[in-house]
Amino acid sequence: MASSSSSLQFLLFLTLLSLTSSSFSQNPILPKAAILPVKKDPTTLQYIATVFMGGTLAAVELVVDINGGFVWVDCESNPTLRSHEPIKSCSLKCSMAKNPVNGCRSAPKTCLLHPENTVSRMSVSGDLNEDRVAMEFWERSIGSPRSLAKIENFLFSCAPNLLMKGLASGAKGMLGLGNSRISFPSQFSTEFGFFRRKFSLRLSSSKGSIFFGGSPYDESSMVYTPLTFLKNGFFLQDGYYINVGSIKVSGKKLSLQRKGLPFKTKLSTLVPYTTMQSGVYRAFVEAYLDAASAMNMTRVSAVAPFEVCFGSKGVGNIPDVPIIDIVLQSEMVRWRVHGRNSMVDFGGGVFCLGFLDGGLSPRDAIVLGGYQMEDYLLEFNLANSMLGFSSLVTVEKNSLSGEFV
Questions:
Q1: To which H or E segment does residue 367 belong?
Q2: Distance of CA 215 to the CA centre of its chain
Q3: How many Cβ atoms sit within 10 Å of the Cβ of residue 52?
Q4: What distance in Å separates the CA atoms of residue 197 and residue 185, rounded to the nearest whole number?
Q5: What is the dihedral of CA 231, 234, 236, 238, to 10 degrees?
Q6: Does the pLDDT of residue 400 top 70, yes or no?
Q7: Taking the CB of the first residue and of the last residue of the chain, which one, N or C, has fewer CB atoms within 10 A?
Q8: Strands 58-65 and 47-53, bridge-based pairing
Q9: pLDDT given at position 25
Q10: pTM for the model
Q11: How many Å apart are CA 26 and CA 114, to the nearest integer?
Q12: Residue in 363, 330, 104, 68 with CA at minimum distance from that of residue 199
């Protein structure tokens, strides 16, 4: 009897083991994210991502433009992209592109876009093409072999060599991360259905990353604010904006004549340092100088392009300077800027306030530049139009190994 009972238990165990094995095989552990490595060019202060493109999946360097609507590349001088195929003007893929130049017409036969060098502000017509593109998956288990996330028919635009003017040396085009159907994050989210439609940006003065679909960092400490998009007629303009309610320096709110209206503030990886409309900038500098004086900081001669500089004797440790708070949808939601992101070290004991006068009538009242975004984790969630942000010092405390960063 006991033998019969033991046999029955063994059969039940085998059945459960079979069901469990079947469950795991049908539900494999999927990659959490895909990664592009990013470096900062010391001459242009642009951020450069490395993407694998073309039939041989050769490494191609592209300037990161978080507001760009699509990827464009100098195909003529890039032999790895000779395998690209043009897209016809009246095709479904052409209709996916935002505002194609020629729409659906009999001539020309190829789909045309307007690739723009958003550094030099030069724009030309360029064919919409497709080819192979890949980047590395981030695997859940530390030390596991890396695999490639590949798209065989990735849509991008070819542009002439003259559009390279102003880009970092070695760059072959621009990586558009904007909120369009053919931007880099949108195409990867569509191709890999298990990826959420979002990307995370980690800029650095040396080694940074862009994560698509998720990130290896602990995001529980993130603060969130709505992303807003400006309209141009019936169409949304490319660009990520947040609403800034006020600005504080050392806890003191700036006196700005806005009648309660928020500042539409653009985020940009192409503007090296935050710019402000002249009236806002003057009020900001005045408040900062008052706070610096109270901290016994010594002002010294300005170093171009900055207007306000201090000597190290008064500054001491760089983070020990007035704290800047960019207040968002409420007093409880703020982007805090410490010394690392507010002061630029020029060497020789000189540190300058890393904010610039954007002029009397700029297109955007405030543009948050790359320097102020460095050493933060920024999560652009395109599905629910939210921006999450947190200092890397905070998110790294409970995160996985930095080996994948």
A1: strand 366-368
A2: 13
A3: 19
A4: 7
A5: -90
A6: no
A7: N
A8: antiparallel
A9: 34
A10: 0.86
A11: 44
A12: 68
